[in-house]
Specification:
three-stranded antiparallel β-sheet, two-stranded parallel ribbon, 8% strand, 227 residues, globular, 44% helix, mainly alpha
Length: 227
Amino acid sequence: IVTLAGKAKSAKRVPFTPDDLKVLFESEEYRKAEFKNASEYWIPLLGLFTGARQAELCQLHVSDVRKEGGIDVFDFNQEDDKELKTDDAGSPRLVPVHPQLKRLGFIKFVQKMKESGQKKMFPNEKRNKDGNFDAYSKRFNRYRKKLGVVPREKERKDFHSFRHTVAGFLIGKGCEEYIANDIVGHKPKNASQTVKTYSQGVEVGTKYKWIKKISYEVDFENLEPWV
């Protein structure tokens, strides 16, 4: 007997396809910015252009978006009440903000949250008793299923498919694996021992060069900005 849990465990998580992304981000909700909360608008977009984990994005503080060497970055860290995947050496990291996010008003949104005195970027997102952002996960899955973005048999599609999407795009464009891993927050692989031992991570400018290459067949120009 194969249980439902067993089926889910045996299914392989896959990236979102180009058609999936068009459906997810060219929806009426995005074209009119008609989501109930800022998190429902921004968190999928942040996942799409960073490959960050759902929890890393849900728990962001306003101060975690800052400049490093003149480049706007996400600072994924474990300060205050934040938690990162502690068994993964690549989790604490800086990830440059993609230009498309800026065009959609993300930096303006951050500034607005700062001016309003908010500490957390998405204050409506709360952890459950197990420490997970289960409520957000359920809302995102309802959204994608409503739009027909569902996996085939023996596949899984959920928020973390964005991680596979970003990593696959970067590797497909010729990005060295250890740089892609540094961006999405995986343990470094295929880097020299010198890089692994002495480096504090890939230089932000190098990561920004690759982040800027990320592009999708989505008409972002028709999205209503949320600021």
